Amino acid sequence: MSTRIVSTGSYIPEVKVSNADLESIMDTNDEWIRKRTGIESRRYEDISTARMATEAAKDACSTVDVETLDCIVVATYTPDSFIPTVANQVKANLGITRPIPSFDLNAACSGFIYAYQVAHAYIVSGIYKKVLVIGVDFNSRYMNFEDRSTSILFGDGAGALVLETSDKGTIDTIIGGEDDINESITMKNSTDYSNPFVERDTKKESYFEMKGSDVFKYAVRIMDKTIKDLLVKNNLETNDIDYVISHQANQRILDSGARSLKIDTKRMLSNVSKYGNTSSASVPILLDEANKKGLLQSGMKVILVAFGGGLTYGAVLLEWI
Ligand code: UT7
Asked: Phi/psi at 213 (nearest 5 deg)?
C-alpha cells in the first residue's frame, strides 16, 4: 500500500515587486540580489493566508470531488489566526460540511514535507483514503523592510496537492531536525500581552530574523545529506532521479546541491527568480508548475526536499504515476 499524487494546484498573488522596486525603499541593488540569490521578483499577498490556501486548494481540486476528501493538512507558520486554523477556513471555503478533520502544522520552510509525510502515514495506515495537503505562507506580513538581508528574499504564495491511496507512487519519506543553537532563524510571538499577575517582557515586535550565512551552510549540507540518505536507503543513485524539486531559498543553494549531488542543473528545478522564497509553499508551487508544464511523465522518479527554521529538514522520494 502506498500513496500517489492525484492532482496539484497553486496560487500566486498578483502584486509583483521587482528588485528595482526594493531599491527605491532600501539600500540594496538589483545586481547584488540577482548575484547572491538569483531572485528577480517576488509576489505579495494583500488579503490573507486562508485566501491563498483556498485558491491553491480549489486549483488542486478542479478534478477532484471535494466530498471525497477525508482530511485537510495545511503547512504554515504564518496563519491569519491561531484559531480558526487555515485548514479550518479552507474546509469551510471549499463548502465541505462533513465533519472531516482539518488542521495546521508548522515546521517552517520544511512544513510541506512534514505535512506530506503525515498525509502519507494516515493513508498507508488505512485511516484515510484521500488527503488534501497545502503549503502556504504570508511572509510579507512578517518582513522587516528595514532589514535588507532578509526582506529581499521572501515572497508569498500557496501550493497544494491531493494524495490518495495507491499501489505505488510515494516510495519513501524522511523528516528530521537539528537544534538551532545559534537561533539562526526566528520569528517571535508578538502576543505576550500584559497580565496583572505575572511580570513579563511585553515586546510586541515579531519580525522574521535570520543569520543568513549560518542558514546557507546548513541548507547546503542538509540538502546533500538528506537526498543521499534517501537514495542509499532505497538502493538508488542520483542518476536514477529525473527531477529534484527543492525548497526555493537561493539559486546558489540549488546550484551547490546540484554540484555536490552531481545532478545536471536542468534536473534541479527552480523558480526562485520569479517568486523568491515562499517558505512552506515553495515545493508545492514548483511541483505544480512542473506538473502543468508536462515535465513529469509516468514512471519518472522525483525527489521533493526542504530545509528551514527549527532547524528542520525533510524529503519525499516518489515515482510519478
Ligand atoms: O527558507 C529558510 C532558508 N533560508 C535560506 O536558506 C537563506 C540562506 N542564506 C542566504 O541565502 C544568504 O546567506 C543571503 C542571501 C541571506 C546573504 O548572502 P551572503 O552571500 O551570505 O551575504 P552576507 O550576508 O555575507 O553579506 C555580504 C555583504 C555584506 O556587506 P559587507 O559586510 O561585506 O560590507 C552585507 O551587508 O552584502 C551586504 N548585503 C547587502 N547588500 C546589498 C546584505 N544584504 C544586502 C542587500 N543588498 N539586500
From this structure: -75, -30
pLDDT digit string (tens) for 77-117?
A: 999 999 999 999 999 999 999 999 999 999 999 999 999 99
The set of cell numbers assigned to 269 is: 528545478
Report the distance separating Cα 157 and Cα 139, nearest Å. Answer: 9
Whether 223 has a pLDDT exceeding 90, the answer reads yes
Instruction: DSSP letter for 198, please.
Output: B
Joined grid coordinates for residue 48: 490573507
pLDDT at position 120? 98
Pocket of ligand 1 (CB under 6 A): 28, 32, 36-37, 109, 148-149, 152, 212-213, 215-216, 219, 249-250, 253, 277, 279, 308
At the top level of CATH, the class of 2-167 is alpha beta
Q: Which atom of ligand 1 is nearest to the CA of 212?
A: 13
Q: Whose CA is nearest to atom 26 of ligand 1?
A: 149
CA distances from 78 to 60, 133, 168, 206, 290 (A): 21, 16, 33, 11, 25
How does pLDDT run across 55-75, given as a tens digit for each residue?
999 999 999 999 999 999 999
Domain with CATH 3.40.47.10 in the chain: 2-167, 172-319
pLDDT, mean over the chain: 96
The model carries a pTM of 0.96
